[in-house]
Specification:
The complex is a heterodimer of chains A (98) and B (174). Chain A is mainly alpha-helical. Chain A has a domain at 1-36 and 56-83. Chain A is built from three helices and two strands; from the N terminus they run αββαα. A two-stranded antiparallel ribbon of chain A has the order 1-2. The longest helix of chain A has 27 residues, at 7-33. Chain B contains eight helices and no strands. The longest helix of chain B is centred in the first third of the chain and has 29 residues, at 20-48. By secondary structure, chain B is mostly helical. Classes of the chains: A mainly alpha (98), B mainly alpha (174).
Chain lengths: 98, 174
């Protein structure tokens, strides 16, 4: 299966992938380096009091991932509405013979 | 004796890496993911009919999240649609995936649901990659690999004259 992607395609995929990896992996790594809580939720004691909060607001991280997904969606719509000749470059590639 | 040193990642992917096993596994993955959604939807219908009142409550509870404004809009102004829509669309998404019909469209619906579940449940104590996130990735995988083409009815539907005349439909099928 082989696609021909132009600059717009590559840019969309690069930005989307970067945002998702940044939100989950890169900022997750910083969160671990910063010490507890290692997850993205506040740390509480047995009484339920918050004893430590995440370095990065989980809303920022989830926002980055959602933004990456939205870019993928917009890119998919863009590919869908390309002129027919170009759109046909996304064929039944691996349709299968399976 | 020559050694093949080319990097396969530089020239795109080929499912030939795994041969027929890839198609087999995509089909298994698709049917199980479909069953997951079908089960979630159909049991809601059995228990509550098309009146899933927790749907709007869940969405309104997302007010502090990154999707807050959108989710509260869905939970208040579109509550009339959410109550029947959650069980109905979960069931339809499940059926679409199980039988491989309109697979990409169904999986896109799954991505929509799982994004709301992932952000709304905010079960991030062990990091951002929760079970909801993995469900979201599964649905994305269905879209990217067009898994309905493997032992799914989309493989037949895509060969019909209608789809041949409207090739863009393959973005929703497959």
């Amino acid at each position: 299966m082989r696609h021909t992607y132009n600059g717009i395609d590559r840019l969309a995929l690069a930005i989307s992938g970067t945002l998702m990896l940044l939100g989950i992996v890169v900022l997750g790594f910083l969160e671990v380096l910063d010490g507890a809580p290692f997850g993205a939720a506040p740390l509480t004691n047995d009484a339920g009091d918050v004893v430590a909060t995440p370095l990065i607001d989980p809303n920022v991280r989830t926002g980055l991932v959602v933004a990456g997904l939205l870019i993928l969606l917009l890119w998919g719509l863009y590919r869908m509405y390309l002129p027919t000749g170009a759109a046909e470059e996304t064929p039944r590639e691996a349709t299968a013979s399976h | 004796m020559s050694t093949h040193t080319a990097n396969p990642f530089t020239e795109g992917f080929s499912l030939e890496f795994s041969g027929p096993l890839a198609g087999y596994w995509f089909a298994i993955l698709r049917v199980l993911t479909g069953w997951w959604f079908f089960h979630a939807g159909v049991t809601k219908i059995i228990e509550d009919g098309f009146n899933y009142t927790y749907g709007p409550v869940f969405l309104k509870g997302m007010s502090g999240t990154v999707l807050g404004p959108f989710a509260t809009f869905l939970g208040t102004d579109l509550a009339w649609l959410i109550k029947p829509g959650v069980p109905l669309f979960e069931t339809l998404i499940g059926l679409g995936l199980i039988f491989g019909v309109l697979t990409r469209l169904a999986a896109f619906g799954g991505v929509f649901f799982m994004t709301l579940f992932w952000v709304g449940n905010a079960d991030f104590a062990h990091g951002l990659v929760s079970s909801d996130m993995l469900g979201l990735l599964l649905m994305m995988t269905m879209v990217v690999f067009a898994t309905g083409r493997y032992f799914g009815l989309d493989a037949i539907i895509e060969r019909t004259d209608f789809v041949e005349r409207h090739p863009r439909l393959r973005y929703l099928l497959g």
